[in-house]
Specification:
about 290 residues, about 75% helix, ABC transporter involved in vitamin B12 uptake, BtuC, mainly alpha, single chain, 12 helices
Length: about 290
């Protein structure tokens, strides 16, 4: 029973991070109808900036803010200068370009910071406390919950969120209605990159440390979580992230870590067979 409780808490903690990154993928999908395969590399770049600021100032929170702010800037710059010139071409073009961004960012980070793992600081202790949760676990849960609520409010209760969705679904009609589609797309990329930076800040301290490829495996698991929950649903991304985190934890603990990729694949295939749009997908939104 103790082992089961430990694996559950570990899975929920890891799943919360997957949920945060899945929210970033959902955000950019809802805003631009694009899957950004460079999301992980962009998040690591933001985390390195936060690391540099923290190292120079000695303040974790100053580095935290710098990482989130740099995520906004990186997302906006990538959309304006790299993605926008190819968005009107064949649908495969953004995918190829985003994969190219991954290679460029990882090479640049390796040249600037080296390829050794750097320790990442945490604002709270990771030692297990009452109920098996650490202060850092609670911080992760609170951060993901706050991100989910803010995104849900953005897309359902604000004019900006509605314009972002309209610009993604029907850009021509949106322009005729007075929506500045270009600005909405840039905003979507900026917000998604900020959410990705938050996810990187949360997960990197629990891994080996900061490295140019630190988010590669996290991206795969988070992408699975986003598809399982539904790419149009922020709550679905959270549920999918927790489900993937628990699945990985249980399989790794009871069967072995080598089988965890198969578990993720089985979960993904099972959901796609039963509900191809994801567990929380909005049918109406996908038919617009």
């Amino acid at each position: 029973m103790e082992r089961f409780l430990f694996l559950t808490l570990d899975g929920l903690s890891r799943g919360a991070v997957y949920a945060a990154f899945a929210l970033a993928l959902v955000l950019i999908w809802r805003a631009t109808r694009t899957i950004n395969f460079a999301q992980g590399a962009m998040a690591v770049a933001s985390a390195y900036i936060g690391y540099s600021v923290t190292s120079a100032s000695g303040s974790y929170w100053l580095g935290f803010v710098a990482a989130i702010a740099s995520g906004v800037v990186i997302g906006a710059v990538v959309e304006r200068l790299v993605m926008r010139p190819v968005e009107q071409g064949p649908p495969l073009n953004p995918v190829i370009v985003s994969l190219g961004i991954v290679l460029v960012l990882q090479a640049a980070l390796g040249m600037l910071y080296g390829n050794d793992y750097k320790p990442a600081a945490t604002p709270f202790s990771r030692a297990a406390g009452t109920g098996g949760l650490s202060a850092y676990d609670i911080f992760v849960y609170g951060s993901v919950l706050a991100l989910m609520v803010l995104l849900a409010l953005l897309f359902t209760r604000t004019a900006v969120g509605l314009r972002m969705r309209a610009a993604a679904f029907a850009p021509v009609v949106s322009r005729l209605a007075g929506v500045r589609v270009g600005r909405m797309l840039t905003l979507g990329w900026a917000l998604a990159a900020a959410a990705g930076a938050l996810a990187a800040l949360l997960v990197i301290p629990t891994e080996l440390g900061l490295h140019p490829t630190a988010m590669d495996l996290v991206f795969v698991s988070s992408f699975t979580a986003a598809v399982v929950g539904g790419l149009d649903s922020p709550p679905g991304a959270v549920v999918g992230g927790l489900a993937v985190g628990l699945a990985l934890s249980y399989v790794s603990g009871y069967v072995g870590p080598d089988v965890t990729p198969i578990a993720v694949l089985v979960l993904l295939v099972a959901v796609l067979l039963v509900r191809p749009g994801g567990l929380f997908a909005s049918t109406r939104a996908r038919q617009v």
